[in-house]
Amino acid sequence: MKKQLLCVAALASLAGTANADDFLGYQNGFADINVNYLDWSHRTETKSENTTRKKDFAYIELEGGANFNWGELYGFFDVENPFHKRRTEPGRNQRYTIKTTGRFYLGDSGFNVYGHVYGTWSMPGAKYGGNFHEVNTLYGLGYNTSFGDLWFKPFVALHYVDQTFYSGNNGYVVGWVAGYGFKMFEEDFMITNWHEMEFARHKRYGNGGRDGVNGALAFWWNATPHLAAGVQYRYADNKLGDDFYQDAIIYTLKYTF
Asked: Which domain of life is it from (predicted)?
């Protein structure tokens, strides 16, 4: 025990005297908290009435990311319907979602080892549409490129899912994240898009067949270095528990620390 304490003390001493940024290869990063309201289209709510019972909902999100000389990390944690009772009808109960993404650079080639984990949990009890979970793990190859103020990061990855109704290999995913920053009327704006296409899914996965699409297109106004507002068009096809096209508008207010 004494040796362990000495080791901890030595590491703390090194941390206090060394440049942590140089040690970790840290370059830059961000952290924010945002509040959101997702408004499903009338068609989506109507068609899902006898399946997933999609309802409009608010959610609070903690989000952050960092760039290093060896790669980049990103993640968020959401609480959906934060002010609702935990025991209520499906579509209105509390849900919890996390995502973490990593890209580990392969030298200066632009390519990177890509991985992400996305999980969502609905609680509690089957009586209230809860005890559902789905955790998607992707592992594959990515690429980073940019053209002026436009950046584009595609990837292709194998897909493993751990879900209430099926756990196992689930085909593969091709997708990207992209963004374009620009000025207009002396204000800072950005357009972003994340998009995922799932292929060769297992027949027991239960999201409308072998293939599916999931994503969002967003418009952001960065009003100050700390405050931003956004509108997102959320879309999915053969995904989110339903075998038809679903869409919604998400309204977001964001505070960056």
From this structure: Bacteria
